[in-house]
Protein 1
Amino acid sequence: MKMMNIILSFFILVMLANVKAATFQNANNSSTKLIGYNPISHPTVTFTIYKEKHIPYLDAINDIFRNESENTKYAFQGGNYHWVLTGFDISIDNSSRHLKKHFSSNRIEAIQAGTTFFIAYIKEKFKDVVSRCMYKYDFENDCPNDLNDFANNLKASIYDRFEYEFTHGLIKYESEPKDVKVKKRAKKIFKALVPNSDMTMNGHFIKIIWDSEHNRLAHNISIYFSMNINKNNANATCYYKFPKSEIAESFVKSLRKHDLLSQMY
């Protein structure tokens, strides 16, 4: 019972109302362990300026974000932390001539392909920063400084190096359109989307330490964060937050469903 109370207290800090299980492999053990939850909601994209004639292109972008969400995990592990995004909004400056020149009814396919490149790029940059930097952070003892350093590392990886990496062919593309013209346009749209984007994220940093011998949850701390990054700025705030307590029940049900409850003892 004591162990169950620890588990419930931990996940009360982590989850929102709609969640699904996320499992990861321990490098020293082949058994799967539940270490956090992924929000099932997808990022939402908006344009900075409302123009009715731009609505079809915004819809095309959001359609891709919705469709790609099932294949995109907005949760990443690095060091002793699990980084979970529970909110992710992207604002696109549709007044940019570099972007709006591509707004045409006969370029919807290219806009969607460029958006697919954009999603893949963001995901890879998130994974890169988490894998390179997360080990050095101590959020529970120095959250303001470490979180702002993390935000600046994200900005540097996503925005500061983009032009260089794009120009020198250092970005990998998946699911490229077969049509050469569409592919070429898609890459130009992708090039316009990145610098004209502004990302607002919130979620949790969850510290988890597993006993390597007994594979038990030894310690956990959940810190809520809010972050904004764009090509010019990066800022973030953090604090402890306690979500709705009824979330605990859905957590226990998920453990039983995935046959992971016994692994917690």
Note: The CA atoms of residues 209 and 218 lie 6 Å apart.
Protein 2
Amino acid sequence: MSYIPYEIITHKRQVCSLYKKACRTIEDWYHYRPLMRINIVRLRKRFDDNKNIIDVPLAKELLQKGQHELWANQHYYPHQFPSSPGGTAFERDVFPPDWVLDSWHPLEKAQYPKYFAKREERKKEYIALWEKRWGKPFIPHDEH
């Protein structure tokens, strides 16, 4: 998907982004924590060795080489967090319906007396509005 960038990303931010993506790639390849940690420390040393470079063209070249290296070493099946875009639980926030509160135990309701008193008032108002608009529900009693 192409888009028009609306801000210029600084070199510092690009380097930080590259570092984070490289760390995530290492996490994809190594599942044994100590090995993962060793490789991330080695990666950090590589970044720290080049952090004081003042020459702008050289810094841009190193950034581009790092991005190419990241692309070459990317994992074939990268880890995706469940709640992130592309994850299995993305935008699956379950909001319980209002009637769940009706099933609370009276001791639980007693912890929030003002809320439940107001809620009962609003339920009565809603029922009155419903009956005014649609009429009382017809329930046949002699069918079964």
Note: The two ends are 61 Å apart (CA to CA).
